[in-house]
Amino acid sequence: xxxxxxxxxxxxxxxxxxxxxxxxxxxxxxxxxxxxxxxxxxxxxxxxxxxxxxxxxxxxxxxxxxxxxxxxxxxxxxxxxxxxxxxxxxxxxxxxxxxxxxxxxxxxxxxxxxxxxxxxxxxxxxxxxxxxxxxxxxxxxxxxxxxxxxxxxxxxxxxxxxxxxxxxxxxxxxxxxxxxxxxxxxxxxxxxxxxx
Length: 196
Hints:
- Residues about 190-195 have low confidence and may be disordered.
- The chain is built from 7 helices and 11 strands.
- It has helices at about 1-10, 45-55, 60-75, 85-90, 145-150, 175-180, 185-195; strands at about 25-30, 30-35, 40-45, 95-100, 105, 115-120, 120-125, 135, 140, 160, 165-170.
- The termini are far apart.
- It has about 200 residues and is of the alpha+beta class.
- The strands form 3 sheets. The chain has a 4-stranded antiparallel sheet. Strands 5-10-7-8 form a 4-stranded antiparallel sheet, with no helix packed on it.
């Protein structure tokens, strides 16, 4: 294409494009690959090894080639580190925002979540038409009572309403139970708060 642009700028006739396929390569994982090079077919480790060589040769700079080659050599001698952050697990904790006046839980509704206040204030109501019996602030939590009831299927004994704009972290029942069972001190604190 570059030559044809040059020909056009110089008023010369263009030339038809022709492409000769040298081959095709693909890595299919676990040090296996498939390849067809100039009509010859390869598979498994030889194809994978050839694919890596071609890939390395086509990298743009010497520094880039050296960096990738060192990384590949490291992977041959050292297994991957399995102590990694598992995003699927960390996504179980969700964030929620409530505007002032919105109810987060209501007395009598199923209690299936545990809440920690990140910012703002929430009021705890036994009677929604009366003033709150307590005001929760950042760092306070609620919802553990229903989750720790026999069978984990309790209902909240009070309603909780956002008094100001409220940001919460929420955990579902199973994740809350796993967390409280894993951390003995946390479990004791939750049970103590339910008894108080």
